[in-house]
Request: fold
Amino acid sequence: MVPKREVYLDNSASTPVDPRVIEAMLPYFGEVFGNSTASHRQGHRGESAIEDARETIAGILNCAAREIVFTSCGTESDNLAVRGAAWNARRRGILTRLITTPVEHSAVINTMRQMRNLMDFEMEIVPVDKSGRVMTEAFRAACQRGGSIASVIYASNEVGVIQDLPLLSSIAHEYDIPFHTDAVQAGGQLSLDVNELGVDMLSLSAHKFYGPKGVGILYVKNGIQLEPSQSGGSHEDGRRAGTHNTAFIVGMAKALELAYQENEARLSHFAAMRDRLIQGILESVPGAEISGHPTQRLPSHASFVIPDVDANALLMHLDMGGVCASSGSSCKTGDPEPSEILLGLGFTPSEAKCGLRLSVGLHTTADDIDYALDVLAASVAKLRRLQGAPVS
Ligand code: PLP
Reply:
């Protein structure tokens, strides 16, 4: 059955590439194709496009151009930050403890787990409160015990909560611990001024802000020592080997520039759509509870626990009705595992199987939201009837 309408509410997973970004990228697939490290004129053209992109991005992050490292995605940026800092600490024979939180993306937390399981690093996961905010005193106590890196996500992909990075980074620095943030969801929405945030490393991924998939950034503060996690040539000052993806780097810089030039208008549109969605769901879906902080959350992000509804079945019903949504990270196929992030916020294992994430974007309209609300309310009522759960 073809749904009446298609409504895309999964902008936290990925966004479409802005046509202005595509236009900026096009010359670098054909006319300007040289390897940016080559010493001839074709190479120089590529190199100069990359260095212009680096300057543009550095301007937005308020840092020096050489503090920007280009990577292949947000996952690689997170891996480089965590592995790079930890390996460097081990090489220098200093403490090898990794500090993080239960609301991290798997790119951070699974990298740390691998380092713990295979390389005997210690790992400490600092608790969060019910809204998903890191418990400051617990974070301080973890830092007091020492560490080679602390990594705290800027804004959660699953529950949208925004962390107080200036406070947390200043605590880490009291104990000489380098501080990394995964800003992949924050990119294009929240301030990325690394001096205000006080961070030593910051990860971004272009496809979350209307740029292409498969290209990312790691900001690395001058003086922070990293071992490369991808070794080879001397690209990116020896921090990340591999031929530059010139077209995608140019596109990423253009997308980030547009996001901050148009930031005010974008955020007010996102927030208006998100609030219509949140209010509508709380009114029309009995038992729905917001997950994450009610106000300290990404302007584009709405997330809920909808009790007595299997998340996979709900996503399937929404999709049949034309609504593209997500439940978070763990409910793709088969029996949903409880979300580790919802468990971290204190939801019970059965509630943690009932997550729903809806994320709005530049193209979302009020009609889209109203249509999605109707499909959602009908899907929840139907599933509860089928599962024999209370409908209201
Ligand atoms: N970190 C966060 C918070 C994310 O939401 C994502 C992607 O969903 C990533 C990292 C990984 O980024 P990429 O898809 O570019 O590998």
